[in-house]
Structures are given as C-alpha cells and as structure tokens.
Design brief:
Strand content: over 45%
Distance between the termini: 28 Å
Structural class: mainly beta
Largest sheet: 18 strands, antiparallel, barrel
Helix content: under 10%
CATH architecture: Beta Barrel
Number of domains: 1
CATH class: Mainly Beta
Length: 428
C-alpha cells in the first residue's frame, strides 16, 4: 500500500486493524503487576475534563488517552493521527472531511530538595484534506512550582493555557475557525495551623478569549484574591471553605467593568479503598459598575465519584453547573449544566477499552428580549468509544469513535456529527 493511500482508509477498517493487533499482543504477552499498575494509572486520569461537549474531539492534555508518566524527569511525546469528521463545522448542513493531526509534547517532573517543578506542554497541528481554510494549530500547557518552605508553609506558583476549537455558536462558516483560549496564572500559599486545620490564601489572573462571541465568558479578564480555611481528618476527609473576590473587565469594550464574589465549600471524601468522591458547591455573584441589568447570580459547583471494581474496571461519573457572562448586545449570562459517565475496562495487560458519555444543557438569558439568542436553549450529548493499546512503555495506539448531537430551539443551531481517528503515540 502506498503512503498516500493510508489517508483514504475508512474508519471501520482502521478500528478492525487496531483491535486485531491488540488481541494478538495479549496472546503473546501475559500481564505482570507493573503493566496492570500502569494501565490503572491511565484509566484513573480525568476522562471528561471541561469542555465536555461541542469542542475539538482531540483535546490535548485532558481528554485524549495518554502514556503513563515516565520514571525519567524529562520526556518527549510525539503522535500522528488520521481522522474522519462527518461534520467539520458542527452545523445543520454537514460537511465531511478527512484530517491529519500531528502533536509534539514535552513533560517535565523534577525535584530539587523540597521543591518540585512540573511542566506538561503540547502543540498540535490539524490539517484538513478538502477544507484547507480550517487548518489550525493548538498550544496547551500547564506548569507549576510546588514549593515547600517549611513543614507548615507550602505554596504553588502555576500557569496554564487551554486552547481548543469552539463550536458554541450556530453561524459556522467553512472559511473560519473559532478558537477558545484560556490563560490563567495562580499563586497559592497554605499555612498549617493547630492540628488538622490550615489557612489558604491565593491570587490569580484569568484571561478568556474566543472567536465565538455567542458563548459564556467569550472575552474577559479577571483578577482575583482568595482566602480559605481547611480541615483534614486522619481518615482522609478534607473540608475547605473558600471566599473569592474578583475584578473583571472586557478588553474589547463590549461591556462595563464588573465585580465577582464567590463562596465555595469543597469536600474530598475517600469512602472506601475502591471509592473516591470530591465535590465543590458555591454561590456566584457578578455585579456590573454601570449596567445593573447585566447582573446575575446563582449556584455553581461540581461533583465527581470514581469506583474501582476489581483490578480491571473503573467507573467515573460526575456533574457540574456553571455561570458565565454573555457579551453581544446589551449582555446577559449563560447557564451550563453537564453530566458524564465514563466506565473503563482493562481488556488485557496492555489494552484498555473505555466508554465516554456526556450530556450538556445550556440556556442563554439576555437583557434584550429581541436579542438573537433570547431564550435560546441547547441540549447536547456526546458518546465515544476509545480503544487504547500499549504493547511497550514507549509506544501506544489509540482508536476512537465519537458521536455528537445537539438539539436547539434556535433555528440552524442543531447538528449531528461522527468523529473517528486512529493515532500512534511514542515517548522518548
């Protein structure tokens, strides 16, 4: 077969090849304890991090299956993928295309005495076969200095960038790619007090930008200060109360400056050796300096539970609810609620099969009753199947098929899409 013909292979053919190879590898290589531990670490990685719905199907760092962390402090990851997308613009009029995805990543995890430095960075180039105008690049990273000054005084200095393709709108054009970029810098200090008590303080800067203005927090800058009190029991129960005050603005001048206030209660509860539960529940409030009609408030939060059923099966489930500002016209806000279920099964010593299902509801509340998105409500669901085969610690193959569907009361905002890919990843 010529190299040029590989780009024309159908997705079912690729998946059959991947499954055949994985089953053959299992027959040749029995499991050992280290293999099982490595696969369990990969299963335990976050399967459904934000964003869950309607975004680029191969989101770096968070959602794609990944190689387990190497024992080496520095590692270089490279991957190449062939994919087919039945609706590249996520619009009611589907346009299908094939694409190639090349990714290079750098991973650093180094300790110097009590100090630890971590970096996880990844750059991806996406190239389409027919719709070349949609070619784009994504750069994602997160790095941190985990500092320990004394046994009771610790801190974290971190920075991250999350970049992905945003399909939140209903006006997709074959000549435009809307990217969403979030950049955040945080500094946190924790002071251990008497017994299990601790005091937490921190500051942060968040910048969100999106080419799709009809979505939550499309273009805002927010500077925040946080103060919290935590309590941890010997059983592992951890409870923390945190208050945050923020000052924000819209750099493009689309709205007035605003003030955020949020109070959160966070809980981490190890129910059992095979169970884990964490949740955060809070009240969020935003007030604008000159346009009170744009003000909003409400409950926000998330909850996640993970269950290990034996050594080969893991199930994660969770839900979250968030609020965000809405810019076009006189403004308003967007409510987003999500729920997900992600079971994973270790088929063999080197093969993992995982199912990922998520549903999301978004509701637009606009100040202007005649605004284009007034009363808009989108219901979206996505279901994906991922086959992960890793015959060697440095080599991994991932095949996935995902179906997406969005129903909306806004004309032209509905879509159906099926995405499939086969990727090869190596770690140096």
């Amino acid at each position: 077969m010529k190299p040029a013909d590989c780009h024309r292979l159908t997705l079912p053919t690729l998946c059959v090849v991947a499954l055949s190879l994985s089953l053959a590898a299992q027959a040749q290589a029995p499991a050992d304890a280290s293999d099982l531990d490595a696969l369990r670490q990969r299963i335990a990685a976050p399967l459904m991090a934000q964003p869950l719905i309607g975004q680029q199907p191969l989101v770096p760092l968070a959602q794609a299956a990944r190689l387990p962390r190497s024992e080496q402090p520095l590692a270089l990851n490279l991957s190449a993928a062939l994919a087919h997308d039945s609706n590249v613009m996520r619009t009611s009029e589907a346009r299908a295309d094939r694409l190639a995805i090349l990714t290079a990543g750098l991973r650093l995890d180094k300790r110097y005495g009590l100090q630890r430095f971590t970096l996880d960075a990844e750059g991806s180039a996406l190239r389409f076969d027919e719709w070349g105008a949609l070619d784009h690049e994504l750069v994602n990273y997160r790095g941190a200095w985990l500092a320990s000054f004394t046994p009771r005084l610790t801190g974290t200095l971190s920075s991250r960038q999350s970049q992905l393709r945003d399909f939140s709108g209903a006006d997709g054009a074959p000549t435009r790619v809307d990217l969403r970029t979030e950049r955040e810098q945080l500094v946190d200090l924790t002071v251990g007090g008497v017994g299990p008590w601790r005091v937490e303080a921190g500051a942060g800067h968040l910048r969100a930008e999106s080419g799709q203005a009809r979505t939550l927090e499309a273009n805002a800058r927010i500077d925040s200060l946080r103060l919290g009190l935590g309590h941890r029991r010997p059983s592992g129960l951890d409870l923390a109360l945190q208050a945050r005050e923020g000052e924000g603005r819209y750099p493009d001048g689309s709205g007035p400056d605003f003030h955020d206030r949020q109070i959160d209660l966070a809980l981490q509860l190890p129910l059992h050796a095979a169970w884990a539960f964490d949740a955060r529940l809070g009240q969020f409030q935003r007030r604008h300096d000159t346009q009170a009609a744009r003000d909003f408030d409400g409950a926000v939060g998330r909850a996640r539970v993970a269950w290990d059923s034996g050594a080969r099966t893991r199930v994660e489930a969770g839900l979250e609810h968030e609020l965000g500002g809405y810019e076009p016209g006189t403004g308003g806000y967007v409510r987003a609620s999500r729920v997900f279920l992600a079971p994973a099964w270790q088929v063999g010593a080197r093969t993992t099969l995982s199912l990922r299902h998520a549903q999301e509801l978004r509701h637009w509340s606009t100040v202007d009753a005649l605004a284009l998105d007034a009363g808009r409500e989108d219901r979206t669901r996505a279901t994906g199947l991922v086959l992960d085969w890793q015959p060697w610690s440095w080599w991994q193959m991932v095949a996935q098929v995902r179906s997406e569907h969005r129903a909306s009361n806004l004309a032209g905002a509905h879509f159906r899409a099926t995405f499939g890919s086969l990727a090869i990843r190596i770690s140096i």
